[in-house]
Amino acid sequence: MGSMTQWPNPFYPQAAAVFRIDAAALRPHNRGQMVVYLSGAIEYAPDCGKGWRAALTPQLEALGHRVYDPAADERKNLTELEVREFREWKRTDRERFRATVRKIVQWDLDWIEHKADCVVAYWDEYAQRGAGSQAEITLAHRRGIPV
User: Who's near 129: CB < 8 A, 6+ residues apart?
Assistant: First the structure.
């Protein structure tokens, strides 16, 4: 029997039962390295979606997979000015904010379409408020990428 690993997360205590990975049981099915995209709320999540991703990433890497964490990659395809100012633009310049968000969405969807072997989606009340996770899951499904 493999050891079960749970991850505690103060923002998502209910998720401990969801993310239980039995590495010994999974190994026979995952003989090759996969590139995993972590989909879930960022904008509306209390911790910007970083907690569950930081907890899950080492477990996936221990299984030999590569992980792309869009919450950790704040630069993406943005200019220095966009990285520095885009959250402020949400209050002060909606048009610039929308244009920057469109660039981020395009980057993330391109990443899934051209690089991801699978998508791990954390679906909660915060993901339901935004549109990014829905778009990512739908694109993956349409392209035959396992979610």
Answer: 41, 43, 44
Q: Assess whether pLDDT exceeds 70 at residue 17.
A: no
Residue with tokens 């990433």: 57
Question: Kindly report the CA angle at 74 between 129 and 7, in degrees rounded to 5?
Answer: 65
Domains of the chain, by residue range, sit at 33-142
- pLDDT tens digits for range 46-99: 999 999 999 999 999 999 999 999 999 989 999 999 999 988 999 999 999 999
Does an H or E element contain 25, and which? helix 23-26
CB atoms within 10 A of CB 127: 23
DSSP structural state of residue 147: -
Count Cβ atoms within 10 A of the Cβ of residue 38 and give its class: 0-12 exposed, 13-18 middle, 19 or more buried: buried
Residue 67: partners with Cβ closer than 8 Å, 6 or more residues away:
35, 36, 38, 56, 57, 60, 61
